[in-house]
Amino acid sequence: MKVGIVDYGRGNLRSVENAFLAIGADAVLITRPDELDDITHLVVPGQGEFGDCAANLKKQGMFAPIQQWAADDKPYLGICVGYQLIFEQGEESPDAEGLAIMKGSVKRFPDKGLKIPHMGWNSVIPNDPDHPIWADMPEEPFFYFVHSYYPEPDNPGNVAAVCDYVLPFAAAVTRGNLVATQFHPEKSQHNGLQLLKNFLALSVA
């Protein structure tokens, strides 16, 4: 197995790479579509603005190849904005096109008296605790979040876990070999590393 982490100029890439290296994975940063041929697992991290991140993927020629990777149901992990980008569009950048791997949109937390961005540790409740992505984790694992926007998938069946901050939101989604999380596994200590291990165990057939 070989993990390719998309380097498109956005995101805490070294932390993600170091987290995979810490669990013994062969992980590399990739910037070109042809490098997808050499990996088994694809990771799209991201921090920053939705439209800017989408534009950078297009500039690198990675936008359509990432869409195809997901369409082929190869192991895919989206983190933070890399999660938000799998949807069709986001309120942060209304004119920007998301990857549209899943139907849905990304919305800003409403102002209800809690600090925005949602920053720090919070628990998530898996919708299906028996899903392999939650293997060897507590019943309500804690993860580290930093975000002002949250995805709202059209299909509630894709929601893998819910977190409550301002309102209940989809903290993670799954579909086949695709996993995407609003939280940062690379910053989430034991539970985060376990999730990365579980991601690596997804089928590469």
UniProtKB/TrEMBL annotation:
Pathway: Amino-acid biosynthesis; L-histidine biosynthesis; L-histidine from 5-phospho-alpha-D-ribose 1-diphosphate: step 5/9. Pfam families: GATase (PF00117). Transmembrane segments: none annotated. Its main location: cytoplasm. It is found in: Cytoplasm. One of its GO terms (cellular component) is cytoplasm. IGPS catalyzes the conversion of PRFAR and glutamine to IGP, AICAR and glutamate. The HisH subunit catalyzes the hydrolysis of glutamine to glutamate and ammonia as part of the synthesis of IGP and AICAR. The resulting ammonia molecule is channeled to the active site of HisF. Its EC number is 4.3.2.10, 3.5.1.2. It comes from Oceaniferula marina. The active site is at residues 80, 184, 186. Keywords: Amino-acid biosynthesis, Cytoplasm, Glutamine amidotransferase, Histidine biosynthesis, Hydrolase, Lyase. Residues 5-200 form the Glutamine amidotransferase domain. GO terms for molecular function: glutaminase activity; imidazoleglycerol-phosphate synthase activity; lyase activity. This is Imidazole glycerol phosphate synthase subunit HisH. The keyword Lyase applies. InterPro entries: Class_I_gatase-like, GATASE, Imidazole-glycPsynth_HisH. Heterodimer of HisH and HisF. GO terms for biological process: L-histidine biosynthetic process. It catalyses: L-glutamine + H2O = L-glutamate + NH4(+); 5-[(5-phospho-1-deoxy-D-ribulos-1-ylimino)methylamino]-1-(5-phospho-beta-D-ribosyl)imidazole-4-carboxamide + L-glutamine = D-erythro-1-(imidazol-4-yl)glycerol 3-phosphate + 5-amino-1-(5-phospho-beta-D-ribosyl)imidazole-4-carboxamide + L-glutamate + H(+).
